[in-house]
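Sample 1 of the test manifest.
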Amino acid sequence: MIAVQDRASVVCHDSRPMVPVTATIVDIQEESSNTRTYMLQIDDPAMRSAYRFEPGQFNMVYVFGVGEAAISISSDPAHNEYLAHTIRHVGSVTRAIARMKVGDKLGLRGPFGHGWPISRCSGRDILMVAGGIGLAPIRPLIYAILANRGQFGRVVLMYGGRSPSDLLYQKELAAWRDDGQMDLLVSVDYSIAQWDGPVGVVTDLIKRLRIRPDRTSVMVCGPRMMNRHVTWQLLRLRVAPDQLFISLERNMRCGVGRCGHCQYGPKFVCKDGPVFSYESIREVFGKEEI
Amino acid sequence: MDKLPLHIVRRPELDRVFGLLRDNAYTLIGPTRRDGVIQYSEIRSLADLPIGYSDRQAPGSYELVKSETPRCFGFVHGADSWKRFLFPPKRRVFGASRQAGPKTPFDIDDLRSPPPAYAFVGVRACEIAAIGILDKVIGSELLDPFYRQARDKMFVLAVNCIEPGGTCFCVSMNTGPRVTRSFDLCLTELGEEFGVEVGSERGAALFKQLTSRPATAAEKELFRLLLERASERMGRHLETEGLPELLRKSIESPRWQTIASRCLACGNCTMVCPTCFCYNVVDSTDLKCRKAERWRYWDSCFTLEFSYLGATSVRYEISSRYRQWMTHKLAWWHDQFGTSGCVGCGRCITWCPVGIDITAEAAGFRETAPPRAVPLTPQQQAMPS
Amino acid sequence: MNIPGPLSQKPRLAVYKFSSCDGCQLQILELEDELLELAGEIEIAYFLEARRQALPGPYDIGLVEGSISTPAEERLIRQARKDCKVLVSIGACATAGGIQALRNWADIDAYKKRIYPRPEWIATLDVASPIAGYVYIDFELRGCPVNKRQLVEVLSALLAQRRPHLPTYSLCIECKRAGIPCVMVARKTPCLGPITQAGCGALCPKFNRGCYGCFGPAETPNIAALGRFFQEERNVSRPAMVRMLRSFNGYLEPFKTSSDDYEQCIQP
């Protein structure tokens, strides 16, 4: 498993995991009306070059005096010069980030958690299912898979968004579609005239796909209800419970399993996850108010 | 541990212990009588102890009463635990400062005052077990340097419980009443004298300076009998056999709603629990927006903010919040830290304002057979078998 | 609650007073350590309790004390909403109607006749209401009076364009953090702490008294459970339950409905 095994290996701050280091916003990409991608550069050159992350891991992004938000890292794990964070401006911290400009300073702690277990998926088909901003933690996985494309069988990305203008990384989606290294299925809940793709929920896309359940590993990240329905649908198609991986979202304060907020049954989402195999969380998955 | 030799010291020797500890720069914290309850606070001498008082504890009820025998430690404990000193309820995490607006760099300091060397006086077996659990949860230097340092420096002057309280169930949790580990010196009140066991080199070095004599055969027998009697007089019992599995199977039990009809979701149980470790962080700025701080506060899984996600809370219903607390404490804690999260001290029972009893509630789940394994979702039911 | 947009370079503050005792305004004046710094960061443009000179609006921040009890107050609060970018109601009168809202359960005309020789000269509204009953409020500071720390927090937060940290959980959490033994358990004193919002620093329990609930209902108050316990275990009568709930925040839900239920002998 590629994932970071021990919290002591958190690179940013080996000795101070609770204290942010400063980083600078070097670029801002508009993604949709309420979502932008921020390229951050860690100010300290030594920390910057020592920083390593796995696809699916996250950082705690700190805004001076406002607070922190857990944001998954959405750039290519092969490059640590700049770290991309795709942020939807919905909470008090993320709205404060919305007011920031290139050159502004943020704090950063991380990387935290266990990411997508791609090393366990070598030789297998990969199905990635993303909903909304859930594509952000999957993008580094795509980069990692494409960098070692020969190690995997068929690779499929299913991506559902609310409307065509809400889709993230549109240029890259087009590039991925064009280069033919993976199958790309994109649908939207609400359509507009220019949209010629499928309309509906992402679970409908699965119905159109013939997967080989015994050799497919699935990576799911989306809203709670999407995660639930996709998981149940794929279990019905006989995908193995230990080959179905879901990235969960939870209230987080520390990132290291200390503050207790992100508990999900027996798991700490921040340190045991955020990516879990269905097998490991079946006890509580889908239960109300867990 | 039964092999530990029992020594006898006279009561005034305790003052010498306190003096020696103070000479070694320890801050003495022990039981005192304040606001009608036992509270752990700074003490200097024997006279600061609540001599001659004992506590009467029942669900939602605590009373200190004058007892016939003027014992030094004739009570169990108050609402507070040593958690308050090792993991303080409020602590600065870091500060940040900047010269001007958001483009200017900011400096982050994590200036932290080191903890004092505490000598805890009158630590009970259940409380030693609780500190053992906190060690597993927050014991690493990385997660909480303050805790680690306080923990490494602390001197434990333990006391064996010979009179358990009305809400005690340490025997059920296998944590007491006898102190068997992680102490420096352990006292047992044998009439006007103390039986003393030495549990560490630090304890031995201090003990050497006291006037003592070996216990007689009769005193050893009295010691054994007192602790045996204490084990038999627990105010509460919690059947732990199969308990984690029982609670896991009861996640969707309607009993949680029954408890929630009485639960105030006030969070008292989590605050007084010696092992509840959750905290929240609060960020703030000064009026000039030049200085920012982050503070850490004890938090409770009974608040809505605790599970806040997006626009609402994951655990909105009080039943879900009580379920989280109890199932975490008695079941999931085993997965996380290889132990129960409960030490049987009974504080959550005594200090629940409406007297909800975790032992009774847990037993209730045994009465009602858990509902059929787990109701399948429609999708799962549709799965061909 | 949204975080309001950017304020002026030196934001202008207005402090309004409606039906109230002025105690919350005094809390502002009692910010001894911060008052000078505050005056440096914001222009105190309208604050009759502190300054005779009243500068005209618009203002950035309006702090509103008191409940709306007269037609004149109703007109003024609507104007205040127009004049202020951010409106913050401060204190139980402004957030709940306050003590004077107890008259909402009484016959106001009978009151007028008993007190005033010419009751027809007295113009009042039918009920004394919280500010939020008339205009949109950006933030609320509970309490009778408000807590000084919370005042500083909300002003600092507005200046920094961040969400103020105003906990909504029970007073018990604040009380236990402070190391105060529970007065319900140790003294058998009925205490509204478990259903009351934190923020005061557990002032009453600190002095061995039960909480009066002046910070109003906590986020999900289980009034029914506490009321049942008071009646069954602490000999609190139904009328006493009504009186406990109907004080500073009696006109604020869910205290209001629960007090009505107890009055009508319905177990809430």
